[in-house]
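Researcher: We plan to redesign the surface later, but first we want a full-length starting point. Tokens attached.
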């Protein structure tokens, strides 16, 4: 059914009296005004109104109301039957009101109210996770339904009275509105409270809007987000949003959002009051750099990282360090607090350092807002210890340490921190630092393969892998799951081994010995490792990465920027005895694109009635970024890289059979 025909049918079936008698007033008004408009082409649903009202009630409490009306246009659009409110659970958020209406095209009304609200805890142990999903799903939604929701929440966040609203969705939006205010009551006086409302990343997505600064924002006719577009930057860094801060001088956690210095001072004090020097006998009197190494090694062996992070009651406040030692576990802020306390027994002063990893980056030039999702430690140094993760600042030299990462040696940070800004929280305020590339532990794989193939194509080989850093996560897998976990990882990610094949891990290095690369040695039996294909032999791709995936639907214009983050380098050295006289299809190849650089050499030497293949492969991923002004160039560069490497891989793994 065409969108226009659907609108006509809906208008015929549902009349104005249906809207007014069966929908709440706000929804019926919007539905009637939208009757003259044609839904966007190819949309599964159309958001006729998404309105949020945010009011500050004092004492850190926010009251938030949502009004949402959606017209369902296809079967896939029926997903709009679910309305979700994400929160921290516990005492942080209370749903005061949550109602829904499904006005079906035949005029039947299906309703729900607060009694049907379901709160679902996130996956994982409830002991360690308190994030919740609160939501409702309307029954019997079908194509042509008008779906309306209305909610009211009371939110007292541990991070203070702040809110953030994202705008664009996977379906188009006819009207989006945000209203912000202070809710003065009979017994409250909020005249001293200032409201800060900032628009973030509006261009190139949104050029026109209606705005009353600090009070109201309205947008019309918004396009749906792109579908099937991969290789984009973290979406929070590029999609439009609005952040709201209520700056209440009478409320402590509101004051810290006046500026980054306020947040740093608050964080410094929160940690200072929770420091209790631990008694760790295993340090054996070590001091200085040796003492720090002994401390972090003990923590890696004895303490478990549990990702609690933002609990409603604690927010960014750490557990007391002696309690962390007693429990033997903690999240990033708890382990950082323990490390700072432990370092104090060695004569070092430590400070909490706020970071953002595996998500949006934090820009010191932007207005302060709770974008951090990780905490590490900064150890003050009076002189250099000669470690890569030392940073020099106007307020002194600091050694950056991530205590949640026991598999990265002291003096380095993992690749998750690469290129990121962190904020060292000092008594006097914030000291921003950009993590230098030299502070990141190198990520490398060195593979050595020696084996022999039969005339039937079965290949038996011994494979040795040296992993530096977190190239394939083998060290971490070995620590958590042992040889079986490593075997499963290699079978899945390296060999695509069929059920009739076999991989046996013969030896593993010590995952906690950080003084050298982690070594895995395995024996592999692959029944089709050197299979026959017409007049050629084909080798399975031992250690060669696959070509890049498709990131764009054919014929659709690109809308997201293209970003690729590359750090890992790999080498493959192979020596294989194989049947028959052979000649490499690709004796020598190399490539250099914005995304990767590689070089290949293959040689076949006669050995009795067979051949010995000697293979060399070097590969390095690169960082690449194509912004909004380079979308087509980026897409073409990606396609060229994909096609070039796909062709290279097919040639490199093929060997002609000589008479």
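Model: Full-length starting sequence:
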């Amino acid at each position: 059914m065409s969108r226009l025909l659907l609108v006509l049918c809906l208008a015929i079936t549902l009349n104005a009296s249906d809207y007014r008698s069966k929908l709440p007033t706000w929804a019926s008004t919007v539905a009637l005004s939208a009757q003259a408009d044609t839904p966007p082409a190819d949309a599964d649903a159309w958001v006729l109104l998404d309105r949020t009202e945010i009011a500050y009630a004092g004492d850190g409490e926010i009251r938030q109301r949502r009004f949402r009306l959606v017209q369902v246009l296809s079967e896939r659009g029926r997903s709009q039957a679910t309305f979700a409110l994400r929160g921290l659970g516990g005492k942080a958020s209370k749903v005061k009101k949550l109602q829904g209406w499904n006005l079906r095209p035949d005029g039947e009304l299906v309703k729900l109210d607060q009694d049907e609200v379901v709160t679902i805890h996130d996956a994982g142990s409830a002991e360690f996770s308190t994030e919740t999903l609160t939501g409702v799903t309307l029954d019997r939604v079908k194509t042509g339904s008008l779906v309306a929701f209305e909610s009211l929440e009371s939110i007292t966040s541990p991070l203070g009275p702040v809110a953030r609203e994202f705008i664009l969705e996977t379906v188009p939006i006819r009207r989006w509105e945000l209203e912000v205010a202070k809710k003065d009551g009979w017994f409250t006086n909020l005249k001293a409270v200032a409201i800060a409302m900032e628009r973030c990343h509006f261009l190139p997505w949104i050029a026109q809007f209606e705005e009353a600064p600090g009070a109201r924002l309205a947008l019309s006719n918004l396009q749906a987000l792109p579908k099937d577009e991969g290789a984009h930057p973290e979406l929070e860094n590029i999609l439009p949003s609005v952040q709201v801060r209520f700056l209440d001088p009478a409320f402590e956690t509101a004051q810290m959002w006046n500026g980054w210095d306020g947040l740093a001072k608050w964080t410094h004090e929160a940690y200072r009051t929770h420091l209790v020097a631990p008694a760790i006998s295993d340090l054996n009197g070590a001091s200085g750099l040796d003492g720090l190494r002994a401390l972090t090694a003990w923590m890696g062996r004895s303490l478990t990282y549990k990702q609690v992070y933002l609990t409603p009651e604690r927010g960014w406040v750490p557990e007391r360090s002696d309690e962390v030692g007693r429990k033997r576990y903690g999240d990033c802020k708890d382990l950082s607090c323990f490390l700072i306390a432990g370092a104090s027994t060695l004569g070092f002063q430590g400070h909490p350092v706020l970071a953002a990893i595996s998500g949006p980056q934090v820009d010191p030039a932007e207005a302060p807002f709770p974008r951090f999702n990780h905490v590490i430690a900064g150890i003050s140094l009076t002189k250099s210890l000669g470690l890569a993760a030392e940073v020099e600042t106007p307020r002194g030299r600091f050694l950056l340490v991530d205590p949640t990462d026991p598999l990265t040696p002291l003096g380095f940070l993992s690749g998750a921190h690469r290129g990121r800004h962190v904020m060292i929280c000092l008594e006097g305020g914030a000291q921003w630092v950009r993590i230098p590339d030299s502070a990141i532990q190198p990520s490398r794989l060195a593979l050595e393969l020696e084996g022999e193939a039969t005339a039937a194509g079965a290949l038996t080989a011994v494979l040795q892998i040296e992993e530096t850093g977190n190239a394939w996560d083998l060290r971490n897998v070995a620590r958590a799951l042992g040889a079986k976990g490593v075997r499963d990882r290699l079978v899945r990610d390296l060999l695509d081994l069929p059920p009739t094949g076999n991989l046996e891990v013969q030896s593993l290095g010590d995952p906690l010995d950080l003084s050298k690369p982690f070594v895995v040695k395995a024996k592999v039996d692959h029944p089709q490792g050197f299979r026959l294909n017409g007049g050629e032999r084909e080798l399975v791709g031992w250690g060669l990465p696959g070509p890049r995936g498709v990131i764009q639907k054919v014929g659709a214009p690109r809308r997201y920027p293209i970003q690729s983050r590359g750090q890992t380098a790999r080498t493959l050295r192979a020596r294989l005895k194989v049947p028959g006289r052979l000649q490499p299809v690709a004796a020598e190849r190399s490539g250099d694109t914005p995304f990767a650089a590689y070089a290949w050499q293959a040689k076949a030497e006669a050995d009795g009635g067979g051949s010995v293949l000697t293979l060399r492969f070097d590969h390095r991923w690169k960082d690449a970024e194509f912004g909004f002004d380079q979308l087509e160039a980026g897409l073409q560069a990606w396609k060229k890289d994909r096609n070039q490497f796909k062709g290279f891989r097919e040639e490199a793994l093929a060997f002609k059979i000589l008479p």
